[in-house]
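To assess whether the prediction recovers the assembly geometry, we first specified each molecular entity separately, as shown.
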Amino acid sequence: MSYKCSRCKRDVELDEYGGVRCPYCGHRVLLKERSRNIKEIDVQ
Amino acid sequence: MTENFEVQFIDRDERTARFLVRGVSPAFANGLRRAIIADVPTLSIDSVRIIENSSVMFDEQISLRLGLVPLTTPPNEFEEGDIVTLALDVEGPETAYSGDLRSDHELVEPADTNIPIIELKYPETADSPQRLELEADAVMGRGRDHAKNQGGVAVGYRHLQTVVVEDDADEYSDSEPEILRGVIEERAAEHAVATDGTGEPENGALVATETFDNDLSKRYPDKEVSVRDVDDAFVFHVESDGSMSVDELVTNAADSLAERATELEQAVQL
Amino acid sequence: MMVPVRCFTCGKVVGEHWEEFKERAKEGDESPEAVLDDLGIERPCCRRMLVSHKDLVDIVSPYQ
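The predicted structure of the complete assembly is given in tokenized form:
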């Protein structure tokens, strides 16, 4: 799972052992980035 | 149908028109109104592929806004279900307008170019400007499937009315306004007062009620009047959203009625 | 947030008149009534779309 640290703005990979924490600065707020896939939406 | 139709225009413009049709039954008038709203196919954006959207609105909200933008639909060029592709790419700080949509068909473009889709910013807290990049498929569809495909806006009709002068008004009564909206056929010209822009009152002339402030007491001062419907005569008000001219809209609607009538006729004969 | 593209009730395109309406009536000193008449927005359903609208993009844009 790829996230972005909200303090140091670096990309973070989380695994199941490390918990929710940025390995570079220790910040605990991570943002989920939007995927680069093209999203198709039906207009309703 | 024993009588022939007779059509007379009261106002005529590219986007709005008002016309009188004589010799139609109420059922036919309503059929035409419904055909204008629901059965004339127009192009409108139906599916959107979002490549990048960092604006403050969700993809779905932006798609809905794009769907509502009217697109010019050239006559006899497309059939129901045909697809035209459009693209939009705007980076902040700037507003993305409907006019920024580029289409792959030279006759298809947004009918109104000045509709704001989304305001894109370059927030001080962000490291890149907001950006919207997308591709959209416009599909030819009908108003009965989705309101975005309605070519006609606020389509309606009223009976043509006429005013009968009953008597002189009671001399001592307070004069009260008598409000009437629509179009009247003049049949009491000798009692009428010329209202601005319509010239001398003349029997048989069509007078829109706005010309006398929708107030019959201004047109027929000091008279006691009553209002009657004229049989089988309807005044249509048609407004187009810009996807086609009013003329095309009404002819297409009439064609679709004719088509369905023929279809029924053939089905019955078999 | 952004102006509605069309009138909710009748479907007339009102979005394209918003910027002019905002400049003349909300930020300028013309009467909204006169501006709406001038823009050709006649029906009350379309008029309320512009009169009651508020842009919110500037308020939410600092947040991600």
